[in-house]
């Protein structure tokens, strides 16, 4: 999955066996972009913050998990 597919702002790809690993990679990437004050990522983070504040984050997270599980496995 890409950063953008996970609510971020770029095409950096994350590959892992589990969704939890993907989520962790995405979070670490987001922290790096935050430290670098990357504007597109900061804007994406604001959108994620809105999801948390509205209580919609659990539903969003579950949709992303389903998308991950529906991806074909790499050989």
Strand content: under 5%
Alpha carbon gyration radius: 12 Å
Question: Cα distance, first to last residue?
Answer: 16 Å
Q: Give the structural class.
A: mainly alpha
Gross morphology: globular
Could you write a compact summary of the structure shown?
The protein is mainly α and 75 residues long. Helix content is 63%, strand content 0%.
Question: What do you see in this structure?
Answer:
The chain is an all-alpha fold. It has one domain. Helices cover 63% and strands 0% of the residues. It contains 3 helices and no strands. The protein is globular, with a radius of gyration of 12 Å. The two termini are 16 Å apart.
Write the layout of secondary structure elements.
Blueprint: H1 19-35, H2 39-54, H3 57-70
List keywords for this structure.
75 residues; 3 helices; globular; mainly alpha
